[in-house]
UniProtKB/TrEMBL annotation:
<dbReference type="InterPro" id="IPR020476">
    <property type="entry name" value="Nudix_hydrolase"/>
</dbReference>
<dbReference type="InterPro" id="IPR015797">
    <property type="entry name" value="NUDIX_hydrolase-like_dom_sf"/>
</dbReference>
<feature type="domain" description="Nudix hydrolase">
    <location>
        <begin position="21"/>
        <end position="161"/>
    </location>
</feature>
<dbReference type="InterPro" id="IPR013078">
    <property type="entry name" value="His_Pase_superF_clade-1"/>
</dbReference>
<keyword id="KW-0378">Hydrolase</keyword>
<protein>
    <submittedName>
        <fullName>ADP-ribose pyrophosphatase</fullName>
    </submittedName>
</protein>
<dbReference type="InterPro" id="IPR029033">
    <property type="entry name" value="His_PPase_superfam"/>
</dbReference>
<dbReference type="InterPro" id="IPR020084">
    <property type="entry name" value="NUDIX_hydrolase_CS"/>
</dbReference>
<comment type="similarity">
    <text>Belongs to the Nudix hydrolase family.</text>
</comment>
<dbReference type="Pfam" id="PF00300">
    <property type="entry name" value="His_Phos_1"/>
</dbReference>
<dbReference type="InterPro" id="IPR000086">
    <property type="entry name" value="NUDIX_hydrolase_dom"/>
</dbReference>
<dbReference type="InterPro" id="IPR051325">
    <property type="entry name" value="Nudix_hydrolase_domain"/>
</dbReference>
<dbReference type="Pfam" id="PF00293">
    <property type="entry name" value="NUDIX"/>
</dbReference>
Length: 339
């Protein structure tokens, strides 16, 4: 089953044709600013003789975000870092299947500054001319006219609106609840040493390509074993120097929630894409800080009920700078696929 990545309320909604096979695909609107003008990257596909956004179908065991980053790299020859989620598309194919296309804003990755998350990704295939034979960077208005399908303008309109509102340049803060752990009832060691189960280790491994797709290059974790082990696969794959904190443990949180809040604020203000791994009882404090720094529309859809996140699940917060400081302008709940 493919991992999900949606702005908490699925932007595509449920298909009305529940009996029809569903094809999940993902892509991105790669953007840049030149001479003060927003530009986007279009691809030409000779098979369909159309201009569209780079995208493609998910591979087995792949998350939507991972597929989006991989497909853009395969079709354009350049890696990207995902940013804001954008409205997706859903339509019926001539074969009678429902195709769902999930989109993100994305920027070109830079080897100098994005080297660590790029190192954590799997190699991608080189572009082939039979799939994409031309690329074009166009001003947003010109791109709207070049697109072959009117429906493809929906994600572009959202991208332009985010740019005009100052919300397009973002960094990600991934909040992760540690993977599934051995139950307290059967663990006879200390609480801080309680380990992950085999399923928890699989969840930790599955998070690696997801975090890499969003350009995560810093890691902060509770020092307790089940959290440290959850971030370890990504730390190793990306070559990071993680920060392990007693403040993010359950015990220290009970004594001083303010220190947890300060850690979250530091990540929001850092400008670096990062991952924070902690425990279920700590999540209300984390979410409270996110809510204080969120647009109202975003704060209203943050998880409100225990357990807030399932074991191994991520909440991806997209943070933009504003005159009042960092603002969370979008959030996604991500469940990495585990096979």
């Amino acid at each position: 089953m493919a991992g999900t990545a949606s702005p908490l309320v699925d932007a595509l909604g449920a298909t009305s044709l529940s009996h029809a096979p569903v094809i999940e695909s993902a892509g991105a609107l790669v953007w840049r600013v030149r001479d003060g003008r927003l530009q986007v990257l279009l691809v030409h596909r000779p098979r369909y003789d159309d201009w569209s956004w780079p995208k493609g179908k998910l591979e087995a065991g792949e998350s939507l975000a991972t597929a989006a980053a991989r497909e853009v790299a395969e079709e354009t020859g350049k890696p990207v870092v995902l940013g804001l989620p954008l409205p997706g598309l859903q339509y019926l194919t001539p074969e009678g299947r429902v195709k769902r296309v999930h989109y993100w804003a994305a920027r070109r990755a830079r080897r100098k500054t994005d080297g660590r998350p790029l190192a954590a990704r799997h190699p991608v295939q080189e572009p082939t001319a039979d799939e994409v034979d031309d690329l074009a960077w166009l001003d947003a208005d010109d791109a709207a006219g070049r697109l072959t399908r009117d429906a493809d303008r929906g994600p572009l309109d959202a991208l332009v609106a985010a740019h005009d509102a100052g919300r397009l340049t973002t960094h990600a803060v991934a909040i992760v609840r540690h993977g599934r752990a051995v139950p307290r009832s059967v663990w006879h060691g200390s609480e801080q040493d309680r380990p992950l189960t085999p399923a928890g280790y699989a969840q930790a491994a599955a998070a690696v390509p997801v975090l890499a797709a969003y350009g995560v290059d810093a890691a902060v974790s509770s020092r307790w074993e089940r959290c440290a082990t959850t971030v370890d696969p990504y730390v190793r794959a990306a070559g990071l120097r993680p920060e392990y904190s007693d403040n993010l443990t359950e015990a220290q949180h009970e004594r001083s929630p303010a220190r947890v809040a300060a850690t979250v604020r530091d990540l929001l203000e850092s400008g670096r894409s990062s991952v924070l791994c902690t425990h279920r009882p700590v999540l209300p404090t984390v979410l409270d800080v996110l809510g204080q720094h969120s647009r109202r529309a975003v704060a209203d859809v943050l998880p409100q009920r225990d357990p807030f996140l399932e074991p191994g699940e991520l909440l991806m917060a997209h943070v933009a700078e504003s005159p009042k400081g960092p603002r969370v302008v979008a959030v996604e709940k991500v469940t990495p696929p585990v096979w």
